[in-house]
Amino acid sequence: MGRAMEAVDIEHPHGTEGRVLQHHASFFYQNKDGIVYPSETYRGLRNLSLGFFESVFAGIVINIGLSYSTTEGWITELFSPIYIKRIHKCKHGSDSSTFDTEGRFMPVNFENFFSKYARTWHMTQSNRNQYDFLGWIISKGEWLLLYRIANDSQGYLAKEAVRGCYDGSLFDYITMMKKAKNN
Ligand code: HEM
């Protein structure tokens, strides 16, 4: 259980210090109230150097798509807030299974998909569950978004960048590098 709360892999047996799984999304709530509003998703994406239209589009789609599953009652809320403490309810099908249904990090699945699919392009197709059209699209979207923000100069997505995406440390790293560059 202790390890399941950290993004560990063979090279990082202790994960990223001080991080738990919900930090994947916590980068986006800027006032630290545990709720992500579309404007915060937008701002977070902009901080990750995504363009204006892309960030507006992804901000709306992510919040509308995830908000309802994280609300406490039956009625959908205005402004589509995402409640981080219930973020695990947003898990969808056709993913890599690196997050389990309780939102924990599953190192074995992380290592599995890397050893199987590194340097190939068909991971998202291979993980597809039958007739799970929404999951297919969301999964493609997540990985494309990650590729957009984190591919290296040779066009590869490094394993460390992917691990950092799971625990959110990648997002902090990208903003830190951006700030350093601007200075
Ligand atoms: C640049 C921004 C983002 C990128 C690149 C990104 C990327 C990813 C990736 C690659 C996965 C793993 C999917 C898999 O294991 O197959 C994932 C999962 C997830 N992300 Fe994000 N994400 C971003 C922003 C967000 C935001 C803003 C939220 C919500 C506030 C969010 C919520 C989730 C959730 C709930 C999952 C679990 C889905 C599952 O495993 O079924 N993400 N994301």
Keywords for this entry:
183 residues; two-stranded antiparallel ribbon; 2 strands; binds protoporphyrin IX containing FE; monooxygenase activity; Caleosin-related; calcium ion binding; Peroxygenase
Give a topology summary.
Blueprint: H1 23-26, E1 35-36, H2 38-47, H3 52-70, E2 82-83, H4 107-117, H5 123-126, H6 133-150, H7 159-167, H8 169-182
Antiparallel strand pairs: 1-2
Helix pairs in contact: 2-3
The structure holds protoporphyrin IX containing FE (HEM).
Radius of gyration: 16 Å
- Number of helical segments? 8
**Ligand roster:** protoporphyrin IX containing FE
- The general outline is globular
Protein model, in words:
The chain is mostly helical and 183 residues long. It has one domain (3-176). It has helices at 23-26, 38-47, 52-70, 107-117, 123-126, 133-150, 159-167, 169-182, and strands spanning 35-36, 82-83. A two-stranded antiparallel sheet has the order 1-2. The model has no long low-confidence stretch (mean pLDDT 89). The protein binds protoporphyrin IX containing FE. Protoporphyrin IX containing FE binds next to helix 1, helix 2, helix 3 and helix 6.
